[in-house]
Amino acid sequence: MRLSRPALLLALLTACHSRQNDTATPDPAAPPAAPRPVAAPADSPGAWYRQYRGLLPGSADSITLQLQAWPRFTNDSESAGVTGSYAGPDGQPFDLNGDYGVRHAPDSLVLIDYNPEHVAEGAPAGPVWRLRRQDQELTGTVGGRPVRLREARPLGSLQLIARFYADSVAAFPGRASSPHAQLRLLALQPVGLATGRLRDNLLRHLRGDTLENQPAPALDALWQQRLAAYTKDYRLDAGERQRDMAGDSLPSYALRYDEQQLMHVYWNQAPLLSIGYFNYGYTGGAHGSYGTRVVSYDTRTGRPLPYEAIFRPEARPRLVALLDRAARRQLRLAPDAPLEGPLFVPHLPATHNVYLTSGGAVFVYAPYEIASFAQGEIRLFLPFSELRPLLQPELPVGTAADMAGPQ
User: Fold this and answer.
1) Judging by DSSP bridges, how do beta strands 160-170 and 82-87 pair with one another?
2) For 260-310, how does the pLDDT look when each residue is reduced to its tens digit (9 = 90+)?
3) Would you say residue 216 lies in a domain?
4) Is residue 329 part of a domain?
5) Is residue 31 part of a domain?
6) Which domain holds residue 164?
7) Which end of the chain is flanked by fewer CB atoms within 10 Å, N or C?
8) Quick one: pLDDT band at residue 33, thresholds 50, 70, 90?
9) CA distance 262 to 376
10) Domain ends where: 104, 127, 151?
11) Where is the region Disordered (predicted)?
């Protein structure tokens, strides 16, 4: 994954509501006024999350596609504005990246499959998905072959509302030629009264909390806090960098910072919701830095499922062996080939950055954690058929019915 500098900004639009001051004396004989209907939660303009089902070319098994979109700035090269993830019956998810070099029309989407399992030897990428939204269908091609997917909400999945915030910050307020930084936030909120604890935990994790002992923030307030903190830090940094130039003019491009926090859906079917909290920051240099913190939630309770809730305490050595084997498969290495060389490490650590699907667990490693930046995030899937003896007995998935993983 490669990100570069932005060119234009998108202003955050907020709606302001005022109270009416009604001083008229009510008629005691009049019936009580009917309560005003509460507006249903709605997506931000240009932001949405949908699920689609259908067959991929040459496959007899249906897939479920988690698809998201959000606004993109004019001439934007920092955000693709679209992302996806799909899985078949075995529960192994595959990510789809938006094409940063393509300007998407509202109903036309281009995604690229960079999963190593789907990239031919020597090729830069796997199949390209070119899709068009038509009513409740996606039509187009995958790898040049026709495909048709239909919008669907699988049994037990949650409706999620997409809320998008964006603003720009001047490095030197009052200067007409001041460079600007961009800040963006894409949040997902579940709909329904029964999702209160889940909604609160999603907001806590968006804020960066690791415990449930603090009140959950309101989303609008969280955005305002994030914007205020970013504005302060950015202007302090800009002032320091300008002073370091000792009278020379600092090139404006050196301060075209960008920061993004985007919530991505990897799994959405009871009893699991698995979310990625993607963070990207650019503060000058050849490229920005990024990573995804992943969390699964038990949708019956709204509680997160961290590593300790998934695996038994003694699981680590066996997990390392399974991850080593999975890495060799993904890298197309011989079963006894050393990992150090293609990777930075001789053995895969059992990272606690892990999420669940109905078919297994996905371990996520950030760039530079075990491999070069050019190799991007590395994700390794282990099916429940391999993990069953290592799982906590109270886990809501991973039973015998979930063990039909890939052989």
Assistant:
1) unpaired
2) 999 999 999 999 999 999 999 999 888 899 999 999 999 999 999 999 999
3) yes
4) yes
5) no
6) 160-304
7) C
8) low
9) 17
10) 151
11) 19-42
Tokens of 286: 């050849």
Q: What are phi and psi of 272, to 5 degrees?
A: -125, 140
Whether the predicted pLDDT of 394 surpasses 80? yes
Residue 78 lies in a domain: yes
- For residue 242, the model assigns a pLDDT of 86
Which tokens go with 60?
């007899």
Is the preceding peptide bond at 271 cis, omega within 30 degrees of 0?
Answer: yes
Amino acid residing at 27: D
- Beta-carbon contacts of 85 under 8 Å, excluding residues fewer than 6 positions away, are 65, 66, 93, 94, 95, 96, 264, 265, 266
pLDDT above 70 as % of the chain: 86
The answer on 55 and 178 residing in a single domain is no
Shared domain for 118 and 209, answered yes or no, is no
Co-location of 291 and 375 in the same domain = no
DSSP lists the bridge partners of residue 148 as: 55, 139
Q: What is the pTM of this model?
A: 0.87
C-alpha dihedral (355, 357, 359, 362), degrees to nearest 10: -30
pLDDT at 100: 81
Q: Are 82 and 69 in contact (CB under 8 A)?
A: yes
Give me the number of domains the chain comprises.
3
Q: Tokens representing 151?
A: 């919008």
Domain check: are 297 and 212 in the same one?
yes
Instruction: Determine the pLDDT at residue 92.
Output: 98
pLDDT of residue 29: 58
Residues 98 and 143 in one domain: yes
Q: Model confidence at 28, in pLDDT bands (50, 70, 90)?
A: low
**Together in a domain, 147 and 197:** no
CATH code assigned at 397: 3.90.640
